[in-house]
Design goal:
The chain is built from six helices and no strands. By secondary structure, it is an all-alpha fold. The chain has one domain. Helix 1 runs antiparallel to helix 2, helix 2 packs antiparallel against helix 3 and helix 2 runs parallel beside helix 6.
Length: 200
């Protein structure tokens, strides 16, 4: 339920930033050769960043709990799968197959639940990290603006987009960005490799 709530909230915030980007690009195209209202554009972007900060204050404990539980559950599930695979030995004789078939079913169940858990963790992480990515998209459009439209207001807006950390956090301990997602994946993989070396 918490995963679903985070995904829905992030999808809404991402939609707001996509809508802003669409309006921003349209304004640049329509105002070609004329004065672009940088102050209004910056004010709109500032309202969106404040909305993200407000939402983050409300749900950052939930994000921290969900990400921590995903990390621990994934590591625990990987450990269980490796341990069960070591103990599940199917022999050729019928009696042994019947005796150890419970282990094979357990390994299959653990592997399947691990795959579901990893997919769920990946979905929540990528959706949440996408908010940070989409909040920086105006930088791409700013590079297409003609030099005649360049002024101090445009520079202020560019600096704001570049320097703003528009993303959700886990109690301000970490920012949910693509880098965070890669760090989580590398932590899980490192844990798995260490387990495999210990078991060997």
């Amino acid at each position: 339920m918490a995963d679903f709530l985070i995904v829905v909230i992030t999808a809404y915030l991402s939609y707001r930033f996509k809508n802003f980007y669409r309006i921003f690009v349209q304004t640049i195209k329509n105002r070609a050769g004329r004065q672009i209202p940088w102050f209004e554009i910056q004010a709109h972007y500032t309202r969106l960043t404040k909305l993200v900060a407000l939402v983050d204050d409300l749900i950052s404990p939930l994000i921290f709990t969900v990400f921590l539980s995903h990390l621990l559950l994934n590591c625990k599930q990987i450990y269980d799968v490796i341990q069960k695979q070591r103990t599940a030995h199917l022999f050729q004789t019928t009696e042994c197959v019947l005796i150890h078939s419970g282990d094979a079913i357990t390994v299959f169940y653990l592997s399947f639940s691990l795959a579901v858990l990893l997919l769920r963790s990946l979905m929540v992480s990528l959706m949440t990290a996408h908010l940070h990515t989409i909040s920086r998209e105006p930088l791409n459009a700013l590079h297409t603006v003609s030099s005649s439209a360049y002024n101090n207001d445009m520079q202020k807006f560019m600096d704001q987009v570049y320097n703003s950390k528009v993303c959700l956090t886990g109690l301000k301990f970490f920012y949910v960005t693509r880098g965070t997602v890669l760090s989580m994946i590398s932590t899980i993989l490192t844990y798995e490799l260490v387990l495999l070396q210990i078991n060997d």
